[in-house]
Design goal:
alpha+beta; eleven-stranded antiparallel β-sheet; 6 helices
C-alpha cells in the first residue's frame, strides 16, 4: 500500500537520526506510579528516584526510525521481532522534581558489531523547561543476532561496563531483595513511555514474548537499573546519583516472572584520580546466576 512505512533495517541506521521532542510534566502521581512499579519504598519526597529518568525521558527509538518513514521491528505486522535492552550508561546532572517539565530527544548515536551480533546505541538528552541539562544516557539494544543472518553462528556478547575487579573492595553487607512477578513486570511495562499503540512489547505482550529471544515475558532492563539505584540509595542516601553521578549497567541474563533477586554491592577504595567513590552492584537470581551488573560512580562530595 502506498505510504505504508517499511521496516527499518541495519542499512538505514545512520548516526544522527533524531526523534521529535518528548515532553512530560512531573507530578506526584507519576513519581508514585514509578515507585509502585519498582517496589521503591523510599520516603515520600519531591525528588524522584534516579531510575525515574527512563520514563521521564524515554528512549524512543521508534521515533528516530519514523523520522525517515520507517517503523521499528516491534511494529512490523508481518514478521515482528524484538530488539532488547543490552545496557545503558546514565550521566546525571540535577534531580527531577515535582513540578518539572522534562523535555527529551532520542538520537541514533552509533552502531557496531561484536561476536557476529549487531548492536545499536541510542542517546537520550533530557533537559528542563529552561534548557538546563537534567541527564543524558546511552541505551544499547541487540539489533540482530548472528544466528538471524546467513553464515553467522550465535555468540553471547554485549558491551562491557568498566571492570573494577582486581581491586581491594569493601562489601557493604546490605542486600535488597526483589520478587519479580507477572504483576511487577506488567506494572513497569505499563508505565507511559511515549510508545505508539502498535508497539509489541516483550514485557506486556505474552504472545509476542513467546516468539522473541527469551521465550517469555521479561522485565524491562531499565527496571533492573532502577533496582540497583535503589540499593545505592539505601547504602548512601536518597537520590545520591543526581548532581554528577554516573550509572553504567549491563544485562547478563533475562529477569523473568518467578525470579527472586538479591541485589548487593561492594565499594571500591578511594582513588587519587578524582573519580569519587565507585560501587559495583550485582543482581543475582535464585539459581545463583548474575543477571545484571551496574557500576555507579559518585562525585567527590
Amino acid at each position: 500500500m502506498p505510504g505504508t512505512p517499511r521496516r527499518f533495517e541495519w542499512e538505514d541506521a545512520l548516526p544522527g537520526l533524531r526523534s521529535g521532542e518528548f515532553e512530560i510534566q512531573v507530578d506526584e502521581a507519576s513519581i508514585r506510579a514509578y515507585k509502585v512499579a519498582t517496589g521503591d519504598g523510599s520516603p515520600a519526597s519531591e525528588i524522584a528516584p534516579p531510575g525515574y529518568v527512563f520514563p521521564a525521558a524515554p528512549q524512543r527509538r521508534y521515533a528516530t526510525m519514523a523520522s525517515i518513514g520507517c517503523r521499528a521491528p516491534e511494529q512490523d505486522p508481518g514478521e515482528p521481532r524484538s530488539t532488547p535492552y543490552v545496557g545503558s550508561d546514565v550521566r546525571f546532572h540535577r534531580p527531577i522534581k515535582v513540578g518539572d517539565t522534562v523535555r527529551s530527544v532520542t538520537v541514533l548515536d552509533r552502531t557496531f558489531e561484536r561476536g557476529g551480533n549487531r548492536f545499536m546505541v541510542f542517546r537520550v538528552d533530557a533537559s528542563d523547561a529552561h534548557g538546563t541539562p537534567i541527564a543524558e544516557y546511552d541505551y544499547t539494544v541487540l539489533w540482530e543476532r548472528g544466528s538471524q543472518r546467513a553464515g553467522n553462528a550465535p555468540k553471547r556478547t554485549a558491551p562491557s561496563t568498566p571492570d573494577i575487579r582486581g581491586d581491594s573492595r569493601i562489601g557493604t553487607g546490605t542486600v535488597l531483595v526483589k520478587a519479580e512477578t507477572v504483576q511487577t513486570i506488567a506494572a513497569y511495562g505499563s508505565l507511559p513511555v511515549g510508545r505508539p499503540d502498535d508497539w509489541l512489547s516483550t514485557h506486556t505482550n505474552e504472545d509476542f514474548a513467546r516468539t522473541a529471544i527469551f521465550g517469555a515475558t521479561v522485565n524491562a532492563g531499565v527496571a533492573t537499573v532502577g533496582y540497583t539505584a535503589q540499593w545505592l540509595d539505601i547504602v548512601e542516601r536518597h537520590g545520591v546519583l543526581w548532581n554528577g553521578g554516573r550509572l553504567e549497567s549491563r544485562a547478563l541474563a533475562p529477569v523473568k516472572a518467578g525470579d527472586d533477586l538479591q541485589i548487593y554491592g561492594e565499594l571500591r577504595p578511594a582513588q587519587d584520580d578524582g573519580a569519587g567513590r565507585v560501587y559495583e552492584i550485582l543482581v543475582v537470581n535464585q539459581s545463583g546466576v548474575t543477571a545484571f551488573r551496574s557500576v555507579a560512580t559518585l562525585p567527590i562530595a
